[in-house]
């Protein structure tokens, strides 16, 4: 069991995500205990934000200051939307740094309900959530890294035979001198050296940083959703197995008190009877050394006596009172944990609701524009791979958020069913009154929200994909009309 506890340490659930965030300019914690290192890291953030603003401003300048066909306009708009989305990721983690730190601390502090001694079923749930979060993080970051690499390498693999296709997508006025993205700045000619080399280096560096930051911030948000769902699963298991867990506690209590039963003497109507507590088939009873049952008058005499004159409460009464208190405490801890998870989801919405709103607001249009480049007029060579990967990243980003947002909703909704199925009829009267509290709170499921878009869930994903298809159909008709 100790090995399992070591493996399921809460601080390990975010170690991969935090390590990846530290490599980008979006790490929410202090990088080091050294003040100078933290100052250098802040400078790293400032430089990244500066170059991001410079590159983002170039797309509108190109749109207003140059002439271009429809295909070039679509590419410019898609790049500009991507820059806005990337900037929201970076700005969110900078502005809400303290709130994100509180989310991390709350996850570590409230990871378990009744201590780290987990059952096999609970350990399986936690381990599955950790493995799933790690696999998702590695796969998602890999996809974004390959996409960013394709954007950087595309100008280096450009061939003159592709000029007829690529002149509508990404090139400067000079022959064979293309950049990852179209840009225009006054009095800056990228057809000459060293202007071209300088801008290519800046664009390549910023592309790598943006791809890394977006993938790391997205996977961090999704990982928080995964662990929020895991907390609801643990809460449901704690309620479902409540009777079994409490019986094990009773058994442990009996085993601990089995060797210390005192021999007491009860006086019944001027008669002295030795009472010896003993255990028979797992049940504690008082063995009175006389035959026959107690009469009603004897029982009333016992009650009037009230265990006075130095007599102690028998172990059976102690056990019942202790189990009742432990049961009430057990349920109260479940209620507190349920409330802490609901507050945790609310804090997530406070931090990331605006980010999710911008991502979802621009998702349909970006999917439409990238789909137009892939389907209507596909480019050649590595440019096609770059656009296709960009489209896949956008769809997967939207799908991951909606999938795990639905998981949070469904798992939080299942808590009330687990609470109702916990055999509450067998509980003490004092403990029964706490079960309706859990049921009433769980009937309104927790949800991750995207601002005005509402809850992040699979129906939202379906709606956005339908909208993207509708926009693509309209854009394709416009293109065919211009061609005719």
UniProtKB/TrEMBL annotation:
One of its GO terms (cellular component) is plasma membrane. GO terms for molecular function: odorant binding; olfactory receptor activity. Keywords: Cell membrane, Membrane, Olfaction, Receptor, Sensory transduction, Transducer, Transmembrane, Transmembrane helix. GO terms for biological process: signal transduction. It is found in: Cell membrane. It is a multi-pass membrane protein. The chain crosses the membrane at residues 43-64, 76-96, 355-376, 382-404. The keyword Lipoprotein does not apply. PANTHER family: ODORANT RECEPTOR, ODORANT RECEPTOR 19A-RELATED. Belongs to the insect chemoreceptor superfamily. Heteromeric odorant receptor channel (TC 1.A.69) family. This is Odorant receptor. The lineage of its organism: Eukaryota, Metazoa, Ecdysozoa, Arthropoda, Hexapoda.
């Amino acid at each position: 069991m100790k090995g399992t506890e070591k493996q399921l340490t809460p601080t390990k659930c975010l170690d991969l995500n935090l390590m990846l965030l530290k490599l980008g300019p979006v790490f929410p914690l202090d990088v080091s205990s050294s003040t100078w290192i933290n100052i250098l890291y802040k400078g790293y953030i400032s430089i990244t934000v500066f170059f991001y603003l410079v590159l983002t401003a170039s797309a509108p300048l190109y749109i207003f200051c140059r002439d271009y066909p429809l295909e070039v306009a679509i590419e410019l708009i898609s790049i500009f939307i991507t820059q806005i989305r990337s900037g929201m990721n970076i700005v969110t983690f900078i502005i809400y740094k303290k709130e994100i730190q509180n989310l991390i601390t709350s996850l570590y502090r409230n990871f378990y309900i009744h201590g780290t001694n987990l059952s096999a079923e609970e350990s399986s749930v936690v381990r599955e959530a950790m493995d799933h979060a790690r696999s998702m993080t590695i796969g998602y970051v890999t996809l974004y890294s390959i996409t960013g690499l394709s954007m950087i390498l595309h100008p280096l693999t450009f061939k003159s035979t592709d000029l007829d296709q690529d002149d509508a997508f990404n090139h400067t006025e000079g022959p064979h001198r293309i950049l990852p993205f179209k840009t225009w700045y006054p009095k800056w000619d990228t057809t000459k050296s060293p202007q071209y080399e300088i801008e290519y280096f800046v664009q390549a560096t910023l592309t790598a940083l943006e791809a890394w930051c977006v993938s790391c911030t997205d996977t961090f948000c999704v990982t928080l959703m995964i662990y929020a769902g895991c907390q609801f699963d643990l809460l449901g298991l704690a309620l479902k197995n409540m009777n079994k867990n409490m019986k094990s506690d009773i058994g442990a209590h009996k085993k601990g008190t089995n060797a210390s039963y005192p021999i007491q003497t009860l006086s019944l109507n001027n008669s002295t009877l030795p009472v010896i507590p003993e255990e028979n088939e797992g049940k504690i009873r008082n063995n009175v050394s006389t035959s026959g049952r107690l009469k009603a008058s004897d029982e009333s005499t016992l009650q009037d006596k009230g265990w006075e004159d130095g007599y102690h409460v028998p172990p059976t009464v102690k056990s019942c009172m202790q189990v009742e208190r432990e049961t009430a405490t057990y349920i109260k801890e479940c209620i507190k944990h349920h409330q802490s998870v609901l507050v945790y989801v609310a804090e997530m919405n406070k931090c990331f609701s605006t980010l999710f709103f911008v991502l979802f607001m621009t998702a349909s249009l970006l999917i439409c524009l990238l789909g137009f480049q892939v389907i209507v007029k596909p480019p050649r060579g590595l440019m096609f791979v770059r656009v296709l990967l960009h489209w896949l990243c956008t769809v997967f980003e939207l799908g991951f958020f909606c999938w795990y947002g639905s998981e949070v909703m469904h798992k939080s909704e299942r808590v009330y069913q687990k609470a109702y199925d916990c055999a509450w009829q067998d509980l003490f009267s004092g403990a029964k009154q706490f079960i309706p509290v859990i049921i009433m709170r769980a009937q309104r499921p927790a949800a991750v929200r995207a601002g005005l878009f509402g809850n992040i869930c699979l129906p939202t994903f379906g709606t956005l994909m339908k909208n993207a298809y509708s926009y693509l159909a309209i854009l394709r008709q416009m293109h065919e009309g211009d061609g005719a």
